[in-house]
Structure formats: C-alpha cells, structure tokens
Amino acid sequence: MERIYLSETEKALLLSLNAGNGFDLSGIDEKELGVAAVMLKDKGFIKARVNYDTIIDAAVLAKGEVYLKENPTLENPVSENELKRLQKDELEYKKRIRKQDDVIRYWKLACIIVTIVSFILGFLTKIILV
Questions:
Q1: Closest CA to 43 of 73, 76, 4
Q2: What range defines the domain where residue 90 resides?
Q3: Are residues 24 and 63 in the same domain?
C-alpha cells in the first residue's frame, strides 16, 4: 500500500485505536482529535462518529489495519525535494569514499616503494661491506 501523509495527531489517534486504548489521548485537545478523526475517516482508515469536532465513537477499519501492518511506524511519504536531497547526499558521500580510496591506494603504493628501496639499500649495503 502506498504511504499516505498523516499528521502527528492522526498517527497518535490511529495507533491508540489500533492498540485498543480508545480515543481519549492525554495532551491532545479534544477538537484537534475530532479533526484528526475526520481526516482518518476521509482516508478510509477508521470509522468514526464526530459531533462538533468531538469524537463520539471510533474504530479502525480493515484498510487502517493493513496500513499499520505495512507501515507500523507510520512513516510519511518522502517528498520529491527530500528525495532529490537524499540522492544528492548519497552522490557526495560516494565521491568522498572514492577520494579516500585514492588516498589509500597512494599510501599503499608509497609503502611498496619504500619497502623495495629499503630492500635494495640493505642488499647493496651487505655487498659493499663483504
């Protein structure tokens, strides 16, 4: 199922109803909960009776249960701008990794050259001293 944008109040209400805790959420205004219930009802996630922005009764529908199973943390969809920003960050990260790989390759090459030069100098020193 495609992700749907939910406000924080809608998420809290849907999770509470799904957990069987009802719709009386502390810290959230009753009117705000009523609006969230109407929004979730319009999206087909719950059935609710709301009177003057006050929830009278509410329950999660099958569509809401399926959505919760597929998206248990209720992550919102990623916007086009956010997706482009993430792709740009990934490309920059890959460029930095390539640069670091190049630096490592140069250090390995330098170590090999130093080892060969040390071996040759050690060998020549033995020949000269003998």
A1: 4
A2: 79-130
A3: yes
